[in-house]
Amino acid sequence: MKFSCTQENLNRGLLIVNHIANKNANLPILANVLIEADKSGIKLSTTNLEMGISCTVRGKIEEEGKATVPARLFADYINLLPNEKVDIESIVDDLKIECQKSHTKIKGLSTDEFPVIPHVEKKDTYLVKAREFKKAIASVIFAVAFDESRPEISGIYTILKNKDAVLVATDSYRLAERTISLERGGKKEQGVIVPVRTYQEVMRMLEQESEDLEITLSENQIQFSLGGVDLISRVIDGQYPDYQQIIPKEHRTAITVDVAEFSKAIKSASLFCRSGINDINLEFDKDHARILSSNTQVGENESEVVIKLEGEPNKTVFNYRYLLDGLANLGNEEAELKLVDSVNPGLLVSKGQSDYIYIIMPIKQ
Amino acid sequence: MKFSCTQENLNRGLLIVNHIANKNANLPILANVLIEADKSGIKLSTTNLEMGISCTVRGKIEEEGKATVPARLFADYINLLPNEKVDIESIVDDLKIECQKSHTKIKGLSTDEFPVIPHVEKKDTYLVKAREFKKAIASVIFAVAFDESRPEISGIYTILKNKDAVLVATDSYRLAERTISLERGGKKEQGVIVPVRTYQEVMRMLEQESEDLEITLSENQIQFSLGGVDLISRVIDGQYPDYQQIIPKEHRTAITVDVAEFSKAIKSASLFCRSGINDINLEFDKDHARILSSNTQVGENESEVVIKLEGEPNKTVFNYRYLLDGLANLGNEEAELKLVDSVNPGLLVSKGQSDYIYIIMPIKQ
């Protein structure tokens, strides 16, 4: 293999793919990037067996071929070079790199050891605005369960429809659902559970992108494609909980509150809640929310925030973290909180908008 | 004790003092801030027994007295309040805090438990420009030894003279010395070893300050005073090494090099040095420095940088970290490196300036 390309192109590609490669005591090749040069360009690929990412960059190919070297080292080295022409040549398993007055050899491994990254046939494809999709992921991803004993809620449930997509995340104490329009929908509605780590990588690949992201589903894989980058990931086996049934359909109380003011009062109360339980008491009357907390070791706090209330006065106890998470992700200055009582879940929505809902289970007293 | 003050004043004071207070299983009071209200104002103090810091803020004192509560909690709570009047009252050992619609009680401890922070008599005082002194600390502090078995080099040697001050740090592999003018010197020359942690706090207290810092020495203590804040610290017992004798007085080779270009080449080479040894080879001839490194596991690198050389061609082997640290702290675009041979220390200075010197021991082959 022998090619030349600009430092800028190679650097951009390596920045995208290099951090999926990681040290693995059993399989050292997983720390490597596979470099394949042929007439379509220079393809850089890494994988952690759960997902694979590849990025094709342009260059002048003198001799087709492939090689594999430690991804981090290669990326760090290329990053330090000036933005000039870089000449790369494989010598047996090693890589020779020349750029101006800098000469380097990086030890590689046999390309035979590099795992095959599965291929997804582009049959069922959906299109979505990259920037919007990134925002949608960010607004639900924090609610995913860390609990490995329930793999079905350890990912984001992704429903792709004819006109829109729905992203759902829950840890069974709270649930976030975000609906987003598709630029091009699919013929049928499909739902898959996508690992959190995959969406973290998708968010990274969508940085500063104004194009459309292409999403392709196959039986066990999902692929995200944009601007020469393909990220392919397994999906999580299992049945996502029927979350529609827990969305409260009725309420006795609806309060409207300023998000910033409410959040600040909750943070003050959080300093005095019981650690581990994180409980804060909320009491709503005609004009005011009262936020109360106390901890015999630490002290106590009580504060008031102005609200508009429709329906009956009400009260409940929430984990302050869950409430703050929801408020921070509404993307609006005014929140609406709907309650039945202190036993049933509360529903938090963005005042006047319907694309985001957030459900919180109360702490039972 | 009963007083009121603005949230802004109280918040500023707590931000300065609160992080010296830390959890200590044997002495829980060390996590607390001591609040003393009298006619001179509201004095906030914390200590970790090695050093103590106090900040006096203005307020309206209704009843003199004192109290002590957990510093972090108090600071976090005050920080969340709006910039309005805060009313504070002690009730036995607890603190009642009122601000607008927020009512809080924080559990305290008896003020009798709070350690006495020593007092330094302002006899021998020196004055230095705060911003300059902060820059001077930053340019040597990284070179201090972490080695606890040699307490005398675990601090910054601080020499206060008639016209200027000298800060020296070493870990015995490299040494940094910075000289800075005093606004007001002392009658006699004095040298003390100041703990790193103390100077880290001094740097924090000097943030955004354009005034002069007052430094006072007593037998076992050093005090830094500025704008209502007093930081008092023990000094380290022991004799600082006679470092003057290791400063090279002669050289066979003097090279002048662009700091940015040289640093980049060293970073490239560092990727291929032997880990733990961090060795890079430097060869200097008439016009060029050649930087070489190799590691049988990883690969090898060689690059060239343009230099001006006076004297003989030369070569040496340095730990790349030490060399990069020195280059980064010269505060100049051009560096001058003076060498005798590959066995004696190298001397790095800022081209055309004499207030900073950096000495590196070579790695013997």
SSE blueprint:
The structure is a homodimer of 365-residue chains.
Chain A: E1 2-6, H1 7-17, E2 32-38, E3 41-47, E4 51-57, E5 60-63, E6 65-70, H2 71-80, E7 85-91, E8 94-99, E9 102-106, E10 124-129, H3 130-138, E11 155-160, E12 164-170, E13 174-181, E14 190-195, H4 196-205, E15 212-217, E16 221-226, E17 229-234, E18 253-258, H5 259-270, E19 279-284, E20 288-295, E21 299-311, E22 314-319, H6 320-329, E23 334-339, E24 346-350, E25 356-360
Antiparallel strand pairs in A: 1-5, 1-7, 2-3, 2-6, 3-4, 4-17, 7-8, 8-9, 10-15, 11-12, 11-14, 12-13, 13-25, 15-16, 16-17, 18-21, 18-23, 19-20, 19-22, 20-21, 23-24, 24-25
Mind explaining what this structure looks like?
Two copies of one chain form a homodimer. Chain A folds into three domains: 2-113, Roll (DNA Polymerase III, Chain A, domain 2); 124-243, DNA Polymerase III, Chain A, domain 2 (Roll); 247-360, DNA Polymerase III, Chain A, domain 2 (Roll), CATH 3.10.150.10. Helix content of chain A is 17%, strand content 44%. The first copy, chain A, is built from six helices and 25 strands. A twelve-stranded antiparallel β-sheet of chain A has the order 14-11-12-13-25-24-23-18-21-20-19-22. An eight-stranded antiparallel β-sheet of chain A has the order 6-2-3-4-17-16-15-10. In chain A, strand 19 (279-284) and strand 20 form a beta hairpin. In chain A, helix 1 runs antiparallel to helix 2 and helix 5 runs antiparallel to helix 6 (320-329). The A-B interface holds A 70, 73, 76-77, 80-81, 94, 101-107, 264-265, 267-268, 271-272, 297-305 and B 70, 73, 76-77, 80-81, 94, 101-107, 264-265, 267-268, 271-272, 297-305.
